[in-house]
Amino acid sequence: MHFLIFLNSALLLVAFAAAVPQKTTTCTEEPAATTSSTAISSPSIPYSVVSVRSGSPIHLLPIQARNQNFYLGGLPGAYCPQPPIPSCPLGSATIFVGLGGLNALSPGGQAIYVRSDGSFGFTEAHSTRYPAGALIGGDLTYSKTNGAQLGSLGTRAFGATGFMACPTEDQGYQVFAAVGNATAPESVLAACLGFDALTIDETDPERGAWQYI
Predict the structure, then answer these.
(1) Distance CA 175, CA 27 (A)
(2) 29 CA to centre of own chain
(3) Partners of 94 in the beta sheet?
(4) Are the beta carbons of 48 and 61 closer than 8 angstroms?
(5) Looking at residue 120, what is its pLDDT?
(6) pLDDT one-digit tens code per residue, 142-181
(7) Domains, the chain
(8) What is the pLDDT of residues 41-94, one digit of tens each?
(9) Cβ-proximal residues to 141 (8 Å cutoff; 6+ apart), any chain
(10) Are 108 and 210 a contacting pair, CB within 8 Å?
(11) What span, in angstroms and rounded, lies between the C-alpha atoms of 84 and 80?
């Protein structure tokens, strides 16, 4: 709840800033001091991701890893060794690291991939096995202005133009790369919704997981 309140506030501030008219510089004014607006194309710290599609049921839902897939909303599937180790995170959110990995503390980490049908998945802990034909890393793209907390995530997997979410019977909306060969019944594909993926820098180690399942 605190996360969503913070996110809504952040988005409102961003929208407000974008809506404020910019001052026009005349020839009699001194030029404004330049500030760094360098675009960052690779994340340097862990981040969470939420879907953005205004006026839809998937607007501002977190991307969560569970059942070896990715879904919008709900909680992640997380595991902690028993008995719990002192440094085991709460597993309350899905946190990503770099371009193509999950911020899991289990030795070897866990990697993201895209199956040939366009669906996103992730490796099991202590394993580097991938489904046949899967694209390791998901061909993700990242963009953020230097100094900003919010960025954007995309994918070019198999020629995709971004992300889409398709309804499931029991897990809400599943995350796919928006590709033409996504495998699902026509009735399901017709209900898929394209969305933008907003990234939020994460600095709280308790919001990760020892292992995603």
Answers:
(1) 51
(2) 43
(3) none
(4) no
(5) 97
(6) 999 999 999 999 999 999 999 999 999 999 999 999 987 6
(7) 40-212 (2.80.10)
(8) 999 999 999 999 999 999 999 999 999 999 999 999 999 988 767 778 889 999
(9) 41, 99, 153, 154, 155, 156
(10) no
(11) 6
